[in-house]
Amino acid sequence: MYAVIGLLRKKPGVTTEEFRTWWHEKHVPYVLRNPGVVHYVTYPIDEVRADFDEDKFSDDVHIDGVAVIYYESKEVYRNALESKALKADKAHLQTGVDAEVLYSLPHVHKGTVTP
Question: Is the pTM of this model over 0.90?
Fold first, then answer.
């Protein structure tokens, strides 16, 4: 499997509730219609750890959610990048009023390690 990890941040003036509604009700359906997507997981950020030292980071580090999109393989992901569905998804993100993707980090998913 091949995973793409996205770090999302709501735009200024957008409430947490508006962001999450947009993400789950409008954005998730766009992702799921892309070819080769086998699993999509969203992780809304509820709070910052009490011991997190915000002085060490700029405002650009703040994120409101993490998304992990799983594809069948790296090849399927690369083919999806050229698909009309994914290009429409990119346009959806660019015109979306509620969020921006800070980073997109593709990687090979090797499985889960459980202690």
Answer: no
| Six token digits for residue 64 | 């409101």
Cβ–Cβ under 8 Å, residues 102 and 14: no
The predicted-structure confidence for 49-99, as pLDDT tens digits, reads as follows: 555 555 555 555 578 888 888 888 888 888 887 877 666 666 666 555 455
Tracing tokens 């999109």 back to the chain, one arrives at 69
Tell me the C-alpha distance between 74 and 57, whole Å: 32
The secondary element (H helix, E strand) that includes residue 104 is strand 99-108
Q: Is 95 exposed, middle or buried (0-12, 13-18, 19+ CB in 10 A)?
A: exposed
Q: Which two tokens stand for residue 19?
A: 């962001």
Q: From CA 87, how far away is CA 82, in angstroms rounded?
A: 7
Q: Which residues partner with 105 through β-bridges?
A: 5
> 71: how many CB neighbours lie within 10 A of its CB?
23
Cβ–Cβ < 8 Å for 33, 26: no
